[in-house]
Amino acid sequence: MRRSLKLAAAVLSGSLGIASLAACGAKSTDNNTASAGGGSGLKVGMAYDIGGRGDQSFNDSAARGLDKAKSDLGAVINEAEAKSGESEGDKEQRLKSLVTSGFNPVIAVGFVYQDAVNKVAKDNPNVKFAIIDSNSPDQPSNVTSLTFSEEQGSFLAGVAAANKSKTKHIGFIGGVQSELIKKFEAGYTAGAKSVDPSIAVEVTYLTTPPDFTGFADPGKGKQAAQGQLDKGADVIYSAAGSSGSGAIEAVATAQGTKWAIGVDSDQAKQPALDKYKDHILTSMVKNVDTAVFSFVKSVKDGNVQSGVKNFDLKDGGVSLATTGGYIDDIKAKIDAATQQITSGATKVPTAP
């Protein structure tokens, strides 16, 4: 979800534009927005999902792509933070503020922005927008959907979990019960069952729409993981944004050998989770940073692809982290499963 090309008619003054951004929780990473970025003229706005930069997961992966656009392409960047419990109007205003401040492209991080992106993009046809993790049939032509084959990476996470579980009992925690997160669940369960058809898989969702706080509540994540541990699960995979950090904490502090599986970013490398890294078996890495950077570059180069741009296992859109070396002993099994998926021999389900 990112791509917006609108420097055209910045009718409002820069000071008014930046003021409106501040009102929406946005922040420029440069004090002098007009001159920063090496004079490339590229101004990229990013509207984060709940949790924002610093969530150690999904938003942070998007932020890495934005940072690379700044360092490699000379882009001036501006970031707008989401608020818990906000309305659809809040999302629209956040995007409008980026547009009126001259940012183009504008990237929306998360499927919760779909309606807002459709409306604001329609009203601003000269601006390029990207939305991550969503695609709608009535999406305007100036919007690019950046999607991922999460089920494929999650399948590999399931293979790892089943091979490492001593109790033959594993768990999955989803932040919000949505079609997107069900892809993670479906792939994970299918991967585990491909190793051991009789393995037990606990499934817990933290919230259901319209409540999206399940992506930003480590306390809920910790409680859910503890519940699964109490039932006998010894490997738990969380697709829950920053709530997953709570699940990782519960696993890391449990008695006996228990493993957590991270998501989106390589969570064993996240500074805030450093004290738990010895309990993170692997992470299903979703390379949102790659998608964000490639989109911004396509805007700069003038060859933006509208519609859907999907990133799968074959092209490196998703992968399994090897930090810590904890899955080195099952590398051959992971490689075999990868080959089966990329060759098309294994069709990974996208729904439980």
Automatic annotation (TrEMBL):
Gene Ontology, cellular component aspect: plasma membrane
Signal peptide feature range: 1-22
Record's subcellular location: Cell membrane
UniProt cross-references to PROSITE patterns, sorted A to Z: PROKAR_LIPOPROTEIN (PS51257)
Pfam family, one: Bmp
SUPFAM superfamilies hit by this protein: Periplasmic binding protein-like I
Chain ranges of the ABC transporter substrate-binding protein PnrA-like domain: 45-348
Membrane topology according to the record: Lipid-anchor
Record has Lipoprotein as a keyword: yes
Family: Belongs to the BMP lipoprotein family.
Protein name: ABC transporter substrate-binding protein
Gene source species: Kitasatospora cheerisanensis KCTC 2395
